Amino acid sequence: MAAVPLCLMFIFSTISFSEQHYIFYDGMIRTYSIHVPLSYDGSETPLFIVLHGGGGNSWHMEEKTGFSKKADEMGFIVLYPDGTWKFSEYNILNALLSLFMWKNRFLTWNSGYCCGYAYEKNIDDVGYIDMLIEKVKRDYNVNSSRIYVVGHSNGGMLAYRIASELSNKISAAGIVAGSIGGYANANSTLWMISQPSHPVSIIHIHGMHDSHVPYNGGHGENATGTRIDLAVNDSISFWVEADECNPLPETNFIYNETIKVDRYIGGKNNSEVVLYSLIYGEHWWPGKNYRYFNFDATDAVLLT
Question: Is the pLDDT of residue 102 over 60?
Fold first, then answer.
């Protein structure tokens, strides 16, 4: 890694704009936000890692999900990491751009077969998240048995990857409009997440009319790039088998039969896999910015 000028080291170590923090990892400028509940008193506290979608950033993810408000109400820490963009590579100009443009960055994650800059440059996002987990555990008294990862779209894809590759650290994962794998393009080979070494409970929320990450798989009509996603059923089947859940779900309908809920129970270490199929839903995170019959994805992830 290139030497960091002392002036920039001082800036990054002493200034935080709206909870934004800067760190150098694998030769790149990486950023994240963290929200600590007002009730934190040094006792063991759960940690939620919340991953933005492709083209988003931590600030947008915090605003649209409302996880920080829930953290104050329920008493958990929220970590909002950022993906990368073409100005993440270290030099003085990029360092200043990251410092002053963090709310307006087009960031992506390397989920294994998608997306954008992060995939093209094979960015080590799993290693980055792993490093942040250990940093937060050093800085705060984190309950190591209650570390969760949540993601939307490209962030949901990475959340699945983190759940599989860091299953020794992750207790459960909440996915909105993500997938366990697919094809980078029509000529590429299939990429899928690896088998987890430990059971991880899964909550997957997906609109059946999703035009970006199609519910039944394929290339979404509004998807960016050339990728082809696996179907939701592929993701659910993978985790039902990995967690050794009952393959026959308990099924019910909620919100006047606009959401189908399939719950696969009886997994190892009491793990379970729950699928919320939003019958009229699209790609967005259901909640305050995208209303879907008063269903809130953040509440579902926290209360399921």
Answer: no
Residue of 99, 13, 105, 97 lying closest to 61 (CA atoms): 105
* Segment 114-123, tens digit of pLDDT: 999 999 999 9
Coil, helix or strand at residue 60: helix
Question: Number of folded domains in the chain?
Answer: 1
Kindly state whether residue 186 falls inside one of the protein's structural domains. yes
Q: Output the pTM of the full model.
A: 0.90
Q: What is the mean pLDDT of residues 4-19?
A: 42
57-63: long-range pairs with CB below 8 Å, 24+? 57/82, 57/83, 57/102, 57/103, 57/105, 57/107, 58/20, 58/31, 58/32, 58/33, 58/82, 59/18, 59/20, 59/33, 59/102, 59/103, 60/103, 61/152, 61/155, 62/33, 62/35
Q: How far is CA 275 from CA 14, 72, 207, 208, 284, in A?
A: 43, 27, 11, 12, 16
Domain extent for 287:
6-303
